[in-house]
Queue: 4 jobs
Job 1
Amino acid sequence: MKLDKIKEEKKKNKLVLLLKESDEVFANTIRRLIIEEVPTLAVEDLEIKDNSSALYDEMLGLRLGLLPLKTDLKSYEFKEKCKCKGEGCARCELKITLKVGRKGYVYAEDAQSADPKCTFAFPKMPIVKLLARQKVDLTMTAVLGRGRDHAKWSSGWSYYKKEPVLKIGKVADPHFVASKCSDGVLVLKGSKLEVDEEKLLDSNMLEYYTEIDKGITLEYTDNIIFTVESWGQLSIKDMLNQSADILIEKAEELENQL
């Protein structure tokens, strides 16, 4: 298999790769491992000392659980695999406190983590809005988990598709086709249509263009466009490395059982 980087958008935590000499089975396996198996930290338990905000305790807990939490996989272990045998220690649990009594929005950055390396990924993500004399005072316990058990532990999103090749032949009305192109894939230069290759891979309207005019044809190569998006807990490199390690581990486990 050969791997080429097509596009990287660091601000969006997004990476697009081109897989050559591979197939959909492998791409889908990595996709599912990223979504379901790669472990991350997320808030699991909540001790609420005071909550006079407009949100019920359950709603506040739901929001906190879904906040992406930066994860250091070298420092934390699953509770069931920890030496404390699930009783809870600094190796398998992360304590985070949130105590705010001012009027206005409470943001993720207001929370104080016991581990400076593992804080909420997006500091300005709002949690709740407080009115005068309202406050929240709580302690969160975050643990490692997998997306297959709950979406809050999912490390990100991943999807793939075959590499498209859009060909422009003899088009009856180039101006009409260009007017129907809302994603910028087809560009009108003079009286001739051309394909913008940079926007081609992101388009979901290619089949539609072939229906507008028979001079436009669409084919697919054997290459696969593989997209990975991180929710912020892990870098995309860590997500891919972890998915590869998990795949190797599962393959070895299967081999041992045969």
Job 2
Amino acid sequence: MSWQVYIPRLKQASIMRKVVFLNILLCFALSLQSQTFRDMQLRYERVREASHSSDQVLRSKFEAAGVSYPPKYIYWRAFKTEKQLELWASDDPYKPHKLIYTYNICRLSGMLGFKAKEGDMQIPEGIYYINRFNPWSNYYLSFRLSYPNGVDSFWGYRPKLGGQIFIHGECATIGCLPMTDSMIREIY
């Protein structure tokens, strides 16, 4: 004797629609995962323009340093007094990074010393990572630094440390690292 499950036709059609919908949703989610960060950023017109205008220049800078392009590992180092932002890169996390290029920071605010609170016009000093890319910035293109870090939180004025510290285009600042629009095209 065989057992058969009786499901009315309407219920079968409803279940099939749900299965098809879930399959489409799964395919969509998998297609998003296969996109690189660069692919997702290239959806924005400013990023596409920046990539198009600076890709060959960057490729030649990396080639001259003997590092593949696009790089696998990068490190940014900024110096306030010298008004410089250095790009270092490597193909291997266990080998030393090589200096690729030094960009000039076009304007500074504040003075030497750490940032104590929001609105003090100080540029932070410390170790940070990039925690947000902004392709629709008011300053052409920008990326935000992870200020405040643990040291900033310990030494700074706790209720109002601030947090909107960016490297961006347009040569204006009240605590960020401004580059010119042409430089931020390469940097971004």
Job 3
Amino acid sequence: MLPVVAIVGRPNVGKSSLFNQLTKTEDALVADFHGLTRDRIYGHIVKDENEIILIDTGGLEHDHGDLSQVINQQTEQAIEESDLLLFVVDGREGLTVSDQEITQRLRKKNKNMILVINKTEGMNDQDLASDFYALGFKDTLSVSALRGDHCQSLIDLISASLTQDEAIVDFEELPEDLISVALIGRPNVGKSTYINSLIQEDRLLTEDQPGTTRDSIFINYRFGKHDLVLIDTAGIRRKKKVEETIEKFSIVKALQALDLSDAVIVMIDGNEGITDQDLSLIGLVLNSGRALTIAINKHDLLNEEDIENIDRQIKRKLKFVSYVDIEFISAKDSKGLKGSLKLAVNAANRAMQTVATSELSKLVEGLMETDPPPYVQGRRIKLKYAHQGGVQPPTFIIYGNQTKKLRDNYKKFIEGQIRSTFSLFGTPIKLFFKDSKNPYSDRKNKLSSRQWKKRRRIIRLRKKRA
């Protein structure tokens, strides 16, 4: 299972900025006022080939009015879920009474902790650290979340601390020759009913109320020629609605199940339509790089008007996953289950597909002739060749000149061409663009006086035309 790290501290010490730096995203809102982060935000730290779940929390301080109880509850749950805590303090303000009180609270949790002194740009690290020695932390590191100073060192320290932590030694692995399919969705969308109907056995507890499944459950299943492992996960609620102690780990369990899966079926309640929470779950799967299939359940309860409404929502809300298969199912009546599972298995196989370098480079060369990228500052961007850098998700590295100036819409165009040419549907694709090394880049071209005069004349003519 993936280890879990939580960022805690009082408000406005830079927790969300640090979250963005460590995850290399902009998922956490950042602004210079207290109490901005109210719910837990989940992301991933990538270290070599390993991943770590990172949780951003609200500030541990009672100064948010009516929101203080909710924020502190969310933070307490994040602390319980975590294997390691990053306690962030403000290096410019120095040690405060609030920092000392929070330290006492955290020590009662008996968690492995790292003290992170933030906002240290342009300051002496030793002087800063001496101010916080009184807190008695074994591991301390000064960083600048704003500029990214020493954030890579912090990732190394996190990885080393987790490696030494006995809590993460007990992890789960699935056989490599089995395809694992995880079912995720909001509570009471029918995930357990789906599996029971599929295996024709009341293996999983089902009730007409949310929260019946409390943990991830693994079931072996023979599907045609494939040996599968079906993973039923606990339903993911909106974070502020998670109140029962036994449900505190639901979201983390689902995230860890994603790490074990080859493909994911996101189940949506057809009665309620496509909600923002469903879109968040789909985004979670895409960020994890897993193959994806969407199943809209309770089709037996929908009339024609409801179906038309769902179709409109699919066209409007799911445009960003237009390459993903969507299946209407009824878990209760066992309709469409094998069809949706077949789509998930196909998507998993495509995510593991390899593409020959010669075919990929041939596609890139053809695009340069038929649909070249637009000129930038009068210069043409040329892509030369490409190769595959990995699978699950399929990753491609494309070489050329001035690739940093490629527009996002052209990158999307290349992604679409690769997807359609090699039938990579149902899986996200990652593209990396690199500039080819110029063998003459280190050589300085010294111009003669005559060449300088000619260059100045050309510049004057261009300015007049402009």
Job 4
Amino acid sequence: MMRYIINDYPFEKFDFLHYLKILFKDRGLRAIYQFLNRVHRRAFSRRLIETYAPTGIGLEIGVGARTICPTDRTVLSDAFSVHGVHDSIAKVFFHGGEIPYDDKSFSFIVSEHVLEHIANPLKVLKECIRVLKAGGKLFLFLPHMERTNDSHRKVTTLEHLIDDYNKDVPLDDQTHVDDWFRNVVKKGLMPLHYSHLTKKDLLKTGSIHHHVWTEKQLIEIMDYLALKICYVNAKVPDRRDSFVVVAEKK
């Protein structure tokens, strides 16, 4: 596998100017209101990253259309160039199960509403641990099952994730498709930006939620991976469908 070099990455020097530019592209004139609105600007989440990772180069896995990371020191990556109807702002592309950077490359890693889309999350998390420096922080922002379209589904157990990892399930694993259609699509809870995709495309683009969690399951997963829990919040103030767990590589 080809390795990327961090020094070759074109970081965005002016973080908020970059944020406003991509927000304007996505939202037009509404971007001005959202940029000035503290909740939309995600001040809490940005401050959380600055608090636990005030220095060093970071990596965002699955950045999508917008980022809460400091773009002057974060590598923005994605597996797909398009998510639903939104273009990704990533500058490097790869799947999280094979991160093309050397061991101990990053001071922090951020993943927001990504891990649930991955059929084999332990594989991705172990890759994240590999490329994190000792003392590096892992920020996981995830949809809380009780406040999203997953509210009719059952939580994914650690045992299930371990079994998926041992079986090395592929990216387009179909195990949870029927559950998704029965408890999300047929209940009218399908996200609009995915509604044009066929069942095959939903799998191919990683657009369904393979897994369902609350902060309790993520704490268990972090313990299993021997990561130190630094911070947990069951409800992210500026993204209330989410919870957040911050963990440290020992």
